[in-house]
Structure formats: C-alpha cells, structure tokens
Request: fold
Amino acid sequence: MSSAVTSSPAIRVRRVAESRLPQVDLANVPFGRVYSDHMLSARCEDGVWDEPEIVPFGDISLHPATAVLHYAQAIFEGMKAHLTDDGTPVLFRPEANWRRMNRSACRMVMAEVPEEIFLGGIRELVRLDREWIPANEHGSLYIRPFLFASDPYIGVSPSREYRFYVMTAPVGAYYEGSVSLYVTRKWIRAAEGGIGEAKAAGNYSASYYGMKEAREHGCDNVLWLDSREHRFVEECGTMNMMFVIGDRVVTPPLGGTILPGITRDSAIQLLRDQMGRTVEERPLSIEEVAGAGEAGTLHECFGVGTAAVVTPVARLTGGGVEVRLPEETPLQNELRDRLTGIRLGRRPDPYGWVDRLA
Ligand SMILES: *Cc1c(COP(=O)(O)O)cnc(C)c1O
Reply:
C-alpha cells in the first residue's frame, strides 16, 4: 500500500489558547494519564456524518440515557506515532487500523467511519500535536480512536447516533521486561460466534475477573484458552501469542475468537520473508506447550501487540501447567529490532508500512 499522504479536505481546527506541553516531562509520563492538547471529534446520525472537528482536549458531556453507558455498544483502536531520526512524525500501517475499526463497527451494528475522517483526521491531529511525540527511542504518541453509541435512549437496539473521537497520549515503554501468565481453565475471553475478533469495549471488562485471579496468583495477565475445551491457546490481554517450538514459530489461527493483531500480521511477514522462519498458524494446545517445555524444545514464548511491540513471557502457570521459559530470547530480539527499525525509518520498508506525515 502506498504511504503517500492523502491531503484531507482541511479539517476545522479549534486550537487551545495555551499548550499544556511545558508542564509535561515527556521522558517520564505515566501510561494513559496524560493527553495531548487536541482531540478529533465527529458525529454520525442516521448514517450521515457531520464535518469532523479538531478541538481542545476536554470532557465529554453525555445524557444519562446515552446508549453506550447501558449496553456497551462501543469499539476502539490503538496505534502509535513515532518520530524518525530526522524528526518526521510517522504512523505504522494506519489503513489496517481503519479497516479493522470498520470490521468491528460492522460486527457491532455501528456506523462505519469514513476514510477521510479516520485517516485524514488522525494525520491532521498528529501533525498538529507533533511536539507531543516523545523524541526518545522507546517513547511514542499512543493514538486512541473510539466510537460509541450516543443516542440518549435506553431501548435495547442499535443506536441511531454515534460519536467518534481520537485522543492521543505520550507514552514511554509499556511493559518493562518479561511477564508471567496465568493459565485458567475456568474463565474465557471469547467464544465462537461472539465478539472476540472485534475490538469491542465489552471484551475488556469481561476479562477483568480472570485478570484479578491472575494477579492473586502472582501473575501479570491471563493466557486465555478456547471456550469449548479449555485447552487451545488463544491470546493474552492486548497481545497475540507466539511460541518458538523446535525450529518453528507457532501462533494460534484467527478463527473468530482472537483479535486480528496488526503486530501479529507484521511479525508473521517479517519472520517468513526476512528471518527465514517457518510460521505455523494452527491450533496449539496448552499440553503441547507444556510438553515442549519439558522436552526442552520450547525456546521462546512472547506476546505481540502495538502497546509493547514484543513482550517476552518468563513463566506460564496454572491450569495444571508450570513452564519456565529460557532467559535468552534471540528471535524476539531480532524481531523487535526489525519492527522498530522499519517503524523508525532505520530499515528499508518493502511493504509500505510507514506513513510519513512530513
Ligand atoms: C489490540 C489487541 C491486540 C493487538 O493488536 P495490534 O493491532 O497488534 O495492536 C491483541 N489482542 C487484543 C485482545 C487486542 O485488543
């Protein structure tokens, strides 16, 4: 896909009177607590979108009957802007986020967001708040687009009105170091025919109980298994999972219950094309993982997602499983280097993944 910047038909901008940036230490921001000066706002009624607007970041006022507050008809996306070494803001595969957002919208019977509002709006917003992108290597500007049912109506039916916002937040590294995952045979994240492959708000609140249990067992997060047999690995939090078993990389297939990660897709392409690895997208039981652990053929296990890029797993525990992963993670290190290198414009970008906002 071309990385040419489509010039959006100028979006109306209401600028802040005074930037809050001087009060922020971009090298030390807590994740998700500090937001940049502006946000994008757009509204859709009966399938017709109003002109989007960029406005000062601030509270949203809602009628108490607003549909999303009752029935969670809401979806979101997550992406990042970086600064290249020459100071150009860049996005990574933003079209893929736009397409996924609209697949989620379709599944949740919501209005789809037009390209010029999603992509045009985000490009304009990031350009405007480019000073908020941390210039240090591990920092980035996290971009959070979200869409929700805004009809002030508590009837149980899809909303007639939707609101779309994009806010951005400077962030440092999301995860520090490796994580331990709790295997539960009881709770599930998503079932076949459900909304597991949509980036729908309800998927996250539904996972909190399992996460609470994981924390009580001293783990950072849950390794979710399938809903029928409680055996096959699905994913973890906001990451897709990859396992290096023998000389292959194995990752669960996208079968409707797993979020189709853009990092997952990018990693599979790099592993196959640039790193000469065989990647198997196939069902993987937790017994196979544990067996490979015992046999010494499980070399690495890691999560992939926008927030942390590549996150090493140190331990899997629970559900009758106890696996400790080797400390050496050569494949992850190379994959992270390659993904980060392409993002930052330090490596060639043969797939046209990088969208430069010059
Ligand atoms: C967003 C998300 C991912 C990762 O997707 P990326 O596009 O790589 O960021 C994985 N799992 C879940 C449940 C997610 O919400």
Summary: The longest strand covers residues 161-171. Residues 94-107 form the longest helix (14 residues).
